[in-house]
Amino acid sequence: MVPEELATHLGAQGCAASPHDVRRLLAHVIFHGAADLDLRHPLPRRLRRAVDATTVRHRLEVLERATDPADGFVKYLLRSPDGALSEAVRIPLHVQGRYSVCLSSQVGCAMRCAFCLTGRLGLTRNLAAWEMVSALLAVRDEAPGRVTGAVFMGQGEPLANYDEVVRAARVLAHPCGGRIAGRAVSISTVGLVEPIRRYARERQPFRLITSLTSAIAERRRRLLPVAGRQPLGELVAALREYAGVSPGRLTVAWVVLAGVNTDDAEVDALAELFRGVRLRLNVLDLNGGDEVGFARASQQELGAFIDKLQRLRSPVVRRYSGGASCQGACGLLRNVPAAYRPAGAEGTAAPLVPTPSGAAGAEPAGAPAGGSPGAGAGAPGSGGLAC
Predict the structure, then answer these.
(1) How far apart are CA 197 and CA 294, in angstroms?
(2) Which amino acids are annotated catalytic?
(3) What does the alpha-carbon distance between residue 293 and residue 302 come to, in Å, rounded to a whole number?
(4) Low-confidence ranges of the chain (pLDDT < 50)
């Protein structure tokens, strides 16, 4: 909760709380990450009793921390009290000692994008706002520096869990919560039209990033099945509404697939769809290779595509997708231990998924000592070269 919500909650329990006390309490529990209510200047006893009696302060269990030695990304495998598994990734930024955290919004994902392994998990349930906040705290508390950003780009479609994601973002951006600047919080979507329109109406202060990947309707339907239910024309209209009220550029993410979405027709279609819109294009490499049935574009093909995009006269940002060796890169989050190898390789491990009863399906293989953008590779500040 943010302070106003906590004050209202306690008032409904018959315990009036001053704005000062609820701010101190939430800063103690969220910003400072304290597990108890032993504030330096104690709370009134009646208030502490009301908080203990009417709220819970769960933290997610960390099952595994896996570091990619090549780039320092760290993937966290987390377990909720009901046994549900999700993941978060610690992302090192260009500024030494600064990090962003890639957060999941659902357990699994229902979108089934053709180039993403996360979608093959299917959807188990939405994550609650407290679980998303707790995931960030688990990562933040072990970071060897400051967490200054958060990206909702892990497992799941954030706008399919709109209320809880926005609630979590508000807590993370609040001065008594995560103290992360609103524009340093990013929410990603594959393009759910009505939630985007709502997002625009509500003037949410967080950056919205839309995974487009193709500007040709039929091609996009093959790559992102959700496009069959969310027509491209309606999506673009909703994005134009959002661009009209957003102070920054409209950010579109593009996963580059070799021989699929790098031709002139894509650039021409993109220019036509967003004519007159201040656009930024985030270009990402494919992860997963043979497992997803697509190939990563060669440097020559990628370079030629970026050259073509210059015709849009919009910034093109080459995003670095880190954490591949620890299964923490874009499209790889699927509750597997870091020792996982693709099908057919020696040492193959099955994904870890909750059993129907809600208990964890299996323990991760090994838990490396010590304690990544996974799905947040396209996040603002996650690295990459502006072209």
Answers:
(1) 32
(2) 87, 330
(3) 18
(4) 343-387
